[in-house]
Amino acid sequence: MPCNTCQQTNGTVAQSQATPGKMILVVEDDPRIAEAYAIRCESAGYQVRTAVNGVSAVLYSQEERPDLIIMDVWMPAGIGLSVAQRLRSLGLADVPIIFVTASKLPGLRQAAEKLGAAGFLEKPVDANSLLKLVGDVLAPSH
Predict the structure, then answer these.
(1) pTM, whole model, 2 decimals?
(2) Which DSSP string corresponds to 8-49?
(3) pLDDT in tens, 118-132
(4) Phi, psi (deg, nearest 5) at residue 24
(5) How far apart are CA 71 and CA 29, in angstroms?
(6) Can you spell out the DSSP letters for 49-97?
(7) How far is Cα 40 from Cα 88, in angstroms, rounded to an integer?
(8) Which domains does the chain have, with CATH numbers?
């Protein structure tokens, strides 16, 4: 049963760096940014779902278990790092998380790394850098 607070979209165009059938959950409170990430990932052949806050992210992840999560660090209803801790405690420790943030707060990257972050990107996020990191994280050998 899909999460009622999540939006669902499906990609149809595959490129060589995409791992077919992989599903990405984008957790971002700014709908324009979420849509930009979703469109870019879908254009590379990934399936994408979006959640607007940490609560939705946890609910969706428990129901559907994404292959990768791209999560904003600062958002309503849950700071990304706290949401990641919650996901880890719920048995989702093997789901890689890429954190994105506009914050320049010292120690933020290190805190994300302590949580086992698969990546950390600063906003504004370059679409090509995002896709390269997503491809690297979801590569079969990873």
Answers:
(1) 0.84
(2) EE------TTS-TT-EEEEE-SSHHHHHHHHHHHHHTT-EEE
(3) 999 999 999 999 999
(4) -115, 135
(5) 10
(6) EEESSHHHHHHHHHHH--SEEEEESS-TTS-HHHHHHHHHHTT-TTS-E
(7) 27
(8) 6-137 (3.40.50.2300)
Q: Going by C-beta distance under 8 Å and a sequence separation of 6 or more, which residues neighbour residue 78?
A: 53, 54, 55, 57, 58, 86
The position carrying tokens 């979420």 is 34
Q: What is the pLDDT of residues 21-55, one digit of tens each?
A: 899 999 999 999 999 999 999 999 999 999 999 99
User: What are the tokens at 64?
Assistant: 């559907």
Distance, CA of 16 to CA of 33 (rounded, Å) = 24
| Listed residue (128, 63, 40) closest to 51, CA to CA | 63
Cβ-based neighbour number of residue 62 at 10 Å: 13
CA 36 from centroid of its chain's CA atoms: 13
Say if residues 93 and 60 touch (Cβ distance below 8 Å).
Answer: no
Q: What six digits make up the tokens of 57?
A: 């992210």
